[in-house]
Write a structure and sequence with these properties.
536 residues; alpha/beta; Rossmann fold; nine-stranded mixed beta sheet; seven-stranded parallel beta sheet; 20% strand; globular; binds glutamine
Length: 536
């Protein structure tokens, strides 16, 4: 068995310049050459996982098959690689320190002073080695979150530097992603910030092998020369990464400049002809479709679109399959709730809607209002998780006539808790990692729209929720005309829909099928929504 090689991806100048996409693209380009690849995200914050963070701060919490609550970059990695990763592919400072401190308490370092170097850096290296060993990959791409120079990131960069020394130059490569801004006054592409971030990296002891230069515009020859000179690199190792319409174009942009071949030669691997045909076809179709469908996105974190990243991507994937381009109309549920916007004003012109997932009271009544309008106006609607739960609330109130029916998450003293905590969930008093998380079995009911979309009896989709449709109310919901289209093995509701003859498409899932949507394998409920939204 060959030893795993490591590619560290660092970022310079500022965060949010697309390091995650470069990392995902690196994975795809290596995989397209027949190499087995994994991608790890290192997050230098002290949270143990992303589960306890507000989506406003970091965007969506991405859930892995094994129930890890991870950084949204894991979603990019899975979508680009077309493979499932595990919770071990997201390492945070919180995890590293927790484990070092636990070991210290157990006496594993007895007699020693426990320090960042070597104890914390050893823990980081061990975690990377263990992912490599367990997955048996040829190359492990490791994205280090944040920006070079951040205090939090230093132990991770130090661990990477040590790995280069210990494993040898042919086994570890460094890719640095930095920003070359364009001045709005003169239109000039500025290279100084890139140079400075390379200096910063060198100060830590790391010489990048390849620079990926983000810029609003294609990298100019002169800028490339200048950056190469200052960074001690050949101009061929300075790769441009300018703004494009879709993140899926980035691997092709990097490939066209020989990025992966250069990287492969640094790693002493054999270069092979990449197989990118189906990816190219996907990108062509993505860019080529111009038939627009307007899809309302009803949620309460709509100001930061990254809060719902996987859903946005799932709609894109489904759009390619259906042959339409979803135009997303963001509807802020709190504004509906507070009467700042009227549902008919924002929803009367859309072709379909997604009721987005969420937590807590704020905005929930706004979502219920939107659901009522969409149901009564026969507009195709897909409810995800909280979206399903609130659709049940709306149905209970308006169709069955259960006044003030609610989820106990929103109104703990509702007379009709149609969505509730299960008895064993009531005793949970820790917030981190205690939701129902990860993929589990879902049994679809023959003859339902959901069944037809999947065409299978059993599916596995990922969950992230605490509350359930209350089993005590299921009979009454069904008597009133709601169809339960999916169950879990314990008899809890996993999906519900209205009969097709009553509504063109009104369907909700307790799971989050968007997490498993891939460019070349779109998620069935999203395909269903877009088909229905197109067929007027
Ligand atoms: N807040 C709901 C629950 O905990 C729904 C969660 C979600 O939409 N992800 O069950």
């Amino acid at each position: 068995m060959t030893e795993t090689k490591y590619v560290f991806i660092t970022g310079g100048v500022m965060s949010g310049i697309g390091k995650g996409i470069v990392s995902a693209s690196t994975g795809l380009l290596l995989k397209s050459r027949g190499y087995k690849v994994g991608i790890v995200k290192v997050d230098p914050y002290l949270n143990v996982d992303a589960g306890t963070m507000n989506p406003y701060a970091h965007g969506e919490v991405y859930v892995t098959e094994d129930g890890g609550e991870t950084d949204l970059d894991l979603g990019h990695y899975e979508r680009f690689l077309g493979e499932n990763l595990s919770r071990k592919h997201n390492i945070t400072t919180g995890q590293v320190y927790l484990s070092v401190i636990n070991k210290e308490r157990k006496g594993e370092y007895l007699g020693k002073t426990v320090q960042i170097i070597p104890h914390v850096t050893d823990e980081i290296k061990q975690r990377l080695f263990s992912v490599a060993r367990e997955t048996g990959v040829d190359v492990l791409v490791v994205e280090i979150g944040g920006t070079v120079g951040d205090i939090e990131g230093l132990p991770f960069l130090e661990a990477a530097r040590q790995m280069y020394v210990e494993l040898g130059s042919g086994n570890v490569a460094f890719v640095h992603v930095a920003l070359a801004p364009v001045l709005s006054t003169t239109g000039e592409q500025k290279t100084k910030p890139v140079q400075h971030s390379v200096y910063e990296l060198r100060r830590i002891g790391i010489q990048p092998n390849i620079l990926v230069v983000r810029s609003p515009r294609p990298l100019e020859a002169e800028a490339r020369q200048k950056i190469a000179l200052f960074a001690n690199l050949s101009p061929a190792d300075v790769i441009g990464d300018h703004d494009v319409d879709y993140v899926y174009e980035v691997p092709l942009l990097l490939e066209s400049q020989g990025y992966a071949s250069r990287l492969i030669s640094k790693l002493g691997l054999q270069d092979r002809e990449p197989d990118l045909e189906s990816w190219k076809l996907f990108v062509d179709r993505l860019k080529g479709t111009d038939k627009v469908v307007h899809i309302a996105m009803v949620g309460k974190y709509t100001k930061l679109k990254d809060s719902y990243l996987s859903i946005v991507e799932a709609l894109r994937h489904a759009g390619v399959t259906v042959g339409v381009k979803p135009n997303l109309v963001w509807v802020e549920a709190t504004d509906v709730e507070e009467g700042k916007i009227k549902v008919e004003d924002v929803l009367s012109t859309v072709d379909g809607a997604v009721i987005l997932p969420g937590f807590g009271k704020r905005g929930a009544e706004g979502k219920v209002k939107a659901i009522r309008y969409l149901r009564e106006s026969n507009i195709p609607t897909l409810g995800i998780c909280f979206g399903l739960q609130l659709s049940v609330v709306e149905f209970a109130r308006d169709v069955i006539g259960l006044e003030n029916a609610n989820s106990t998450e929103i109104d703990p003293s509702t007379p009709h808790p149609v969505v509730d905590l299960l008895p064993w969930e009531r005793d949970v008093n820790e917030m981190g990692g205690t939701l129902r998380l990860g993929a589990s079995e879902i049994r679809l009911v023959k003859g339902t729209q959901l069944y037809d979309l999947y065409g299978r009896d059993v599916i596995y989709e990922r969950h992230r929720h605490r509350y359930e449709v209350n089993p005590k109310y299921v009979d009454r919901l069904v008597e009133a005309g709601l169809i339960i289209s999916a169950w879990n093995p314990q008899g809890l509701v996993e999906g519900a829909e209205l009969p097709h003859k009553e509504h063109r498409f009104f369907l909700g899932t307790q799971a989050h099928p968007e997490f498993k949507s891939r460019p070349l394998a779109p998620s069935p409920p999203y395909v269903g929504l877009l088909r229905a939204s197109t067929s007027r």
